[in-house]
Description:
By secondary structure, the chain is an alpha+beta fold. The chain folds into two domains: 2-40, no CATH class; 64-159, Hyaluronidase domain-like (Orthogonal Bundle). The protein is 45% helix and 11% strand. The protein contains six helices and six strands. The chain has helices spanning 42-51, 64-75, 78-89, 96-114, 118-132, 144-159; strands at residues 2-4, 13-18, 21-25, 39-40, 138-139, 142-143. The strands form two sheets. A four-stranded antiparallel sheet has the order 1-2-3-4. It has a two-stranded antiparallel sheet with strand order 5-6. Helix 3 (78-89) runs antiparallel to helix 4 (96-114), helix 4 runs antiparallel to helix 5 (118-132) and helix 5 (118-132) packs antiparallel against helix 6. The model is unreliable at 1-57 and 177-187 (pLDDT under 50).
Amino acid sequence: MRLISGWLTGKREVIQTEPVRHYFRLADDTPGKCRASACLNPLDFLSATMKAGRKGMSLDWTQRDLREGLRCFHSGAFFEAHEHWESVWLVAQEPEKTFLQGLIQVAASFHHFQRGNLAGTVSLLRSALRRLDVYPEAFAGVAVDPFRATIRLWLDALGTPTRSPLPPLPQLQIASTGSLSSNPFSG
């Protein structure tokens, strides 16, 4: 077992019990193996922190790297979008961090698509959808529902043996007023 520090603060810590599986330890400080009753997988942890009303940083889509990432994403420069959003992701806190990770994975998936790597495209879209599915229909100024719906259309189209016509590329719909709450579970 290897401890990974720096991801969360307080009494929570991230531990790795298998090569690529991370679990979030709750209030139990006892060293040792992570028991199912004491630890949550990342998506369950995220859901629990959102319902508990934990506040994270707000995503300001007028901020340079978010804005430039959005511009790159909408223009089809997916690798560049990934790079811009990753710089914000590095300093973000939950629940925005996992949300950004989902967006980054979508951008990376379409970069793979542009390079003809369909297996990589499908794998990253599935992973992104798992992350984005825990969020409400609108989060951090983004209309999440239509974005998820387009990802599902892409997965369906790429999964059919006859290669049905491809849907339009996903577009992020950002609230122009920035009035959508980044924590929809707060009063």
